[in-house]
Each structure stands twice: as structure tokens, then as C-alpha cells.
From TrEMBL:
Pfam families: Glyco_transf_49, TXD17-like_Trx. This is Thioredoxin domain-containing protein 17. Residues 386-499 form the Thioredoxin domain. Keywords: Membrane, Transmembrane, Transmembrane helix. InterPro entries: Thioredoxin-like_sf, TXNDC17_dom. SUPFAM superfamilies: Thioredoxin-like. Signal peptide: none annotated. PANTHER family: B3GNT1, BETA-1,3-N-ACETYLGUCOSAMINYLTRANSFERASE 1, HOMOLOG, I-BETA-1,3-N-ACETYLGLUCOSAMINYLTRANSFERASE.
Length: 502
């Protein structure tokens, strides 16, 4: 008060205005952060009980020990990288991943059995002690099976005091254990216990180009204020195992691609899942719109596309009912599409993964998919394509039994081919009947093009091995020497017997 008495009236008004402004600013920050601070408490799924009692909770049918280790500080205006890994794979690679990200990371470690608990706690504790980057940024949680009576208290009784190995002993899991891996539960746990405004959901060993988080964080702060229901999509690539240093920018990446040392992620394993249009234009672009966006409002027009993105942290959680390796990650994209989220492609930033995966690489993916599909009743999948190239793409990404119905393309609402006009309603009726719908197969309707194209004897549908279609309508079983043609396709009994017979 003595200080105020010594000031002029004008100075006193100025000082009071500054105090008032500071108070308003502090209140605004509290009001803005409060929803996020309460996010964990207000958005728990119903199967998460007793939140924050003693850092061990029951998350049906699992126990979760959250914040086994946690960062020195919480920075709300950052992007958390949320990821997961099984305990038998967890190793020093997590140090590289956190160092590369250089921002908050929330990691869920999934245990195959309770014997991996103490060694996992010990490993996480030690890397936090030895590596300042881990102490600064890594928040880690353990997901493990609950006891039959849904009791998680036994974990507290084991918890460190604590005699455990510095790393878990080698463990060879069975195909049943690997197929039961709860990937979406682990993803959700990592997100639920993150503490930042933005999130990117990744996998183990995903590495980003230099300055990714800092650059995208600045874009996100502006972008999501304008459009909270949007996703900032980034491109992802694989690099050859012989590459020591990951590319710092897209120009180094471009050089690697020209040398055959980098490809679009899974381009040689599952083409189309991670391809984004206009790659060459993106690689060669040297100017920016100032907002860091390469393309806006890109259509989500392929169910197999699994765009990787940065978003606000309050987007829907992953559907935990999807089995591992059967669209368990893609399902979130479907949900966001239905919810009306838009896709904007980022400029100049990207992710890489070491190792170029091909179909020839021996791995467990197919075994896990086969095992998990047996647990679910499959139905006939229907797809429609236009033209030869589109059909080849479908065949390259579809497994199991495949039937192809060849018909003339539509002009003014119906096929130019009269026989096809008669066949199409029969095909629709038969493939909608219960016994046919229960087939574990894919039924593709392929429009072969307009009349002149089809009549050309060099038309690839006529000449290419595997097709050799001489007339339409025709139905073939792909990769097998079976087909019906012309009037046979329009006969319900003949068509149904063809589909049901092996």
C-alpha cells in the first residue's frame, strides 16, 4: 500500500490493470486446462475400477499398474507418443525411441504372465535412473492378467522392495498367446494415462524425422483451435536395415527412395494400406503454405487405408473387441470417419521404421490372423471394382476364397450388356441368401468397361492368365479352374451350387 501511495493516479491505474490482466490470464489458463486435467477421471471406460487408489487398478479382464515410472514434469501443450510393447520384446530400443521423439511418451508394457512383472519393473526403473531423457519424458504402465476373482491386490504385495532380474528372461510365447495379445487395450491404457493436449498413436520402433514433435505441435495449436474434429496425417516409410542414420528431412528420404533404400510403409507387403496420393509432389515441394499443410480435406475412400495422425487427445478410444492383427488398428480410422473427422496431410514431416517388410519374410502375422479368424463367424464379403487395374489391386490385397463376377459397365444406370442386365439381380439375390452369406469368401463384382473396350480381342480380361474371360456375364473362382458363363449365371440354382461347392 505504501508503494501505491507514492505513485500517481495514472500509475496506480496502470499497475492495477496489470494485476487484473494477470488474474484473468491465470483464470483462463486454469479454465482451459481443467477439462484435460479431469480427462482421466471423467473418461474411464466402465470396466476400469478404483482409479488412482494406489496406482494399481482393475481394467476388465486385466490389472494395470500405471505410472510405474513417470516424467519429472508435465507439459500439457505437447504431443504424447502413445505406444505399446510386450515384455519379451521390451529392451534398450525404447531409449532410442524416446530420444528420437524428445517429448512425452506413454508406454504400455504387456506381460505374457505374472513372472514378468518384477523384471519389467526393474528394467524400467533402471533405465530411468541411467538415462536423463527417460526421466524427463517416459511414463510407463504395466498390463497383466487379473486373477480369477478379479483381484489385483497381490501386485502390491510383490511390488518393489524388490528382488528382480534387471531384464526378463527369454520367453518363447505360443501362437495362442501371441494371438491373444490385447493391442487395443494397451493402446487405450497408454492414452488414458497420458497428460498432454495432443496425441500420436504409434508402435514400437517408430522413429520420426528431426524436429517432428516441435514442428507439428506448433501447427496443432493453431489447427485444432480452428477445427478440433480433424486429423493431421503424416506419411510413413520403411528404410533398409543397412541405413545407419534415419533421414533428417524429406530430401534425404527422397535420395534413399531413389537408391532403393526406402519405400512407403508396407509397400512390398500390403500395398495400399499406407499410400497417400501425390507422393512425388510432396517429396519435391520446397515451399510451404506457412501453416505446414500439404493437402486439406483428403477423402477417406479406402477401407484398407490406415492413416497415421496427430490429434487432440480426446478422440474415441480403440475398439477393444477387435482381435489382434485383424484390423485392430484400422478400426479407429473407421470410427473417426463415421464421426465426421477430416484428414489434412502434413508437409515436410514423416515417420520411418527400420527394415523393409516383404511377403517373403517369415513372420507370425498370417498364423495369428488364421488363429483369430477361427474364433469368429466370417461372412461373405462383397466388393465392387471398375476395370482391370482395380481388380488386380483387390486380388493383391485379398486372401482366402475369391469369386469374381464379370459384367458390362453401366451406362445411364444399367449395363450395356443385355445378358448382364438379366444376371445382375440374380447375383444380388443369391449372394444375399443366408447359406451363401455364411461363406468365408470374397465376392467381387468387376465391371469390365464399355462395349468397344470389351470387344477388343486384346482386352486384358480376355488375354491375361487367370481370367481368360471370353464372354459376359461370367463368374469364376479365382486361382481355381472353375467358372460358369452366360445363361448359367442367370440361373439361381446353378449359381448357388457353384458358390457353395468347394
Amino acid at each position: 500500500m505504501e508503494i501505491l501511495r507514492g505513485l500517481t493516479r495514472s500509475a496506480r491505474l496502470t499497475l492495477c490493470s496489470l494485476y487484473l490482466f494477470a488474474a484473468i490470464f491465470i483464470f483462463f489458463q486454469w479454465f482451459r486446462l481443467q477439462p484435460q486435467a479431469n480427462f482421466l477421471y471423467n473418461n474411464y471406460p466402465s470396466n476400469l475400477q478404483s482409479p488412482f487408489s494406489n496406482k494399481i487398478v482393475f481394467y476388465e479382464p486385466h490389472c494395470v499398474h500405471y505410472d510405474v515410472i513417470s516424467p519429472n514434469k508435465v507439459e500439457f501443450e505437447r504431443i504424447t507418443q502413445a505406444l505399446h510393447v510386450s515384455a519379451d520384446i521390451l529392451d534398450e530400443r525404447i531409449i532410442e525411441q524416446v530420444s528420437n521423439w524428445n517429448a512425452p511418451v506413454s508406454l504400455t508394457v504387456v506381460l505374457r504372465n505374472i513372472h514378468q512383472y518384477l523384471c519389467t519393473v526393474k528394467f524400467l526403473t533402471l533405465i530411468r535412473e541411467k538415462h536423463p531423457i527417460i526421466a524427463t519424458y517416459l511414463r510407463a504402465h504395466i498390463l497383466l492378467p487379473a486373477s480369477s476373482d478379479q483381484d489385483c491386490s497381490w501386485i502390491s504385495e510383490m511390488a518393489p522392495g524388490f528382488e528382480g532380474e534387471e531384464r526378463c528372461l527369454p520367453y518363447t510365447s505360443t501362437i495362442e498367446e501371441r494371438a491373444a495379445y490385447p493391442a487395443n487395450v494397451a493402446r487405450n491404457i497408454a492414452r488414458l494415462f497420458s497428460t498432454t493436449r495432443f496425441v500420436v498413436i504409434t508402435d514400437y520402433e517408430h522413429l520420426f524425422n528431426e524436429g517432428f514433435e516441435e514442428r507439428v505441435r506448433k501447427i496443432a495449436s493453431v489447427h485444432f483451435t480452428r477445427n478440433p474434429k480433424s486429423l493431421l496425417v503424416y506419411r510413413i516409410f520403411e528404410i533398409d536395415d543397412t541405413v545407419n542414420e534415419i533421414p533428417k528431412d524429406k530430401f534425404e528420404l527422397h535420395d534413399m527412395m531413389q537408391e532403393g533404400k526406402a519405400v512407403v510403409f508396407h509397400a512390398r507387403y500390403y500395398k495400399g494400406a499406407h499410400e497417400i496420393p501425390n507422393l512425388e509432389e510432396w517429396l519435391n515441394k520446397t515451399t510451404s503454405d506457412g501453416l505446414g499443410i500439404f493437402a486439406r480435406d483428403v477423402n477417406y475412400n479406402r477401407a484398407t487405408w490406415e492413416p497415421q495422425f496427430v490429434s487432440l487427445s480426446d478422440i474415441p478410444l480403440h475398439d477393444e473387441t477387435f482381435p489382434f492383427q485383424i484390423r485392430d488398428n484400422t478400426v479407429l480410422r473407421w470410427e473417426l470417419c463415421r464421426a465426421g473427422y477430416t484428414l489434412d496431410i502434413l508437409d515436410d514431416v514423416f515417420m520411418v521404421h527400420r527394415g523393409i517388410k516383404t511377403r517373403n519374410i517369415v513372420n507370425d502375422t498370417k498364423k495369428i490372423q488364421i488363429y483369430n479368424r477361427k474364433k469368429y463367424k466370417m461372412t461373405l464379403t462383397k466388393k465392387t471394382v471398375n476395370g482391370y487395374e482395380a481388380l488386380k489391386e483387390i486380388l493383391g490385397t485379398t486372401s482366402g476364397r475369391i469369386f469374381i463376377f464379370f459384367s458390362g459397365s453401366h451406362v445411364d444406370g444399367k449395363s450395356w450388356c443385355p445378358d448382364c442386365v438379366r444376371a445382375e439381380p440374380v447375383v444380388d439375390k443369391v449372394t444375399s441368401e443366408a447359406d451363401v452369406k455364411n461363406l468365408t469368401a470374397t465376392f467381387v463384382t468387376c465391371y469390365v468397361g464399355l462395349r468397344d473396350y470389351w470387344k477388343d480381342q486384346k482386352c486384358p480380361f480376355r488375354t491375361e492368365d487367370g481370367f481368360k474371360v471370353s464372354c459376359i456375364p461370367t463368374v469364376i473362382e479365382w486361382a481355381k479352374n472353375r467358372r460358369i458363363i452366360d445363361a448359367e449365371v442367370s440361373d439361381e440354382k446353378t449359381l448357388k451350387e457353384f458358390l457353395l461347392n468347394q
